[in-house]
Design a protein that fits this description.
This protein is an alpha/beta fold and about 325 residues long. Helix content is about 25%, strand content about 25%.
Length: about 325
């Protein structure tokens, strides 16, 4: 990421979260550069901080970056001081990366990590653009950071070759030794000190990591696997869509069916049938959503990650 004492870090993530404590506080103390903070994440207030103090670096969830970009008072000039913009917490859809760069002039560099890896285990290096996988259309979350080893494992824990999809396992000095007073969970998640992340993905021949999805979020439609990320990436290409989340809901015929929740940009409109047809023309028949809801906002964590779990529970309660 190339931070130096001349940088000014914009703090957006909560400081009790791993991104805030490592990407903001620890980075500022380690490098010896200023950290700019606001009381809470409110886009208008953060934009005021940006205008007054001219930060050069930020790492934040893509939902937070989009909220800043879409604020009514935002302009491209607000981002001119930045040397680098990084995003973690959730993979970025290629369409969203393009939209953000057009509006701000800044390319959002993906980063991938977990609390158990003390923040990033992979990132897109500064000044480098992540490749897009030609088959899935996914944007890479980066390459492994120094001293870090990534393996892709099958269901039996055996390593898979480049290009094959499996569970992502990470080893390195930043991986935690275990869970506090929970040896059973530690043994299950950290066999031999290697973290089994629960994320599904693949590494290409050049070492770029691509996230497919969370194992537990996979939707089973008549025996076919549907990964929500793949559907969401298509939905993000439809201009009114601001945020998208896809979940599986019970279906008497298919076992599960695909349901999409989307929020839309201010001043726009979207009929569910319109989005269903848009996806149907661009996806295999078993993948496109049969159900669409358009709430004002999608539920998120305090760091801005969309909570599919809440949407899935709500959907199962109503189906």
């Amino acid at each position: 990421m190339g931070l130096t004492p001349a940088d000014r870090i914009l703090g957006i993530a909560p400081l009790f979260h791993i991104t805030g404590i490592i990407g903001h506080v620890a980075a500022s103390l380690l490098i010896g550069c200023p950290l700019l903070l606001a009381h809470r994440f409110e886009p208008g207030t953060v934009l005021d901080v940006m205008r007054e103090h001219r930060p050069t670096y930020v790492v934040a969830a893509i939902t937070a970056l989009m909220a800043l970009m879409l604020h009514p008072s935002a302009s491209r000039a607000d981002w001119e001081s930045f040397r680098a913009v990084f995003s973690g917490g959730a993979p970025i859809a290629p369409a969203i990366a393009e939209q953000f760069e057009r509006a701000t002039g800044q390319y959002p560099h993906n980063a991938y990590g977990l609390t158990e890896t003390n923040s990033p285990a992979h990132c897109v290096p500064g000044g480098v653009r992540a490749p897009v996988d030609p088959d899935s259309g996914a944007l890479s979350v980066g390459v492994a950071v120094f001293n870090t080893t990534t393996r892709i494992l099958d269901d039996s824990g055996e390593p898979l070759p480049p290009g094959e999809i499996g569970e992502i396992a990470i080893a390195g000095p930043q991986v935690v030794p275990g869970y506090w007073h929970d040896p059973q969970s530690s043994r299950a998640a950290l066999p031999g000190g290697e973290l089994r992340t629960g994320d599904v993905g693949f590494v290409n021949d050049a070492g770029w990591l691509f996230i497919v999805d969370r194992k537990k979020d996979m939707i089973n439609v008549s025996g076919y696997k549907v990964w929500p990320r793949e559907v969401e990436d298509v939905l993000y290409q439809h201009p009114p869509v601001r945020e998208a989340a896809v979940v599986g809901v019970p279906d008497a015929y298919r076992g599960e069916t695909v349901k999409a929740y989307v929020s839309i940009t201010a001043g726009s409109s979207l009929e569910p049938g319109e989005l269903i047809e848009y996806a149907r023309q661009r996806m295999a028949a078993y993948k496109y959503p049969r159900l669409v809801e358009v709430p004002d906002e999608l539920p998120k964590t305090v760091t801005g990650k969309i909570l599919r779990r809440v949407l899935r529970e709500d959907s199962r309660d109503t189906h």
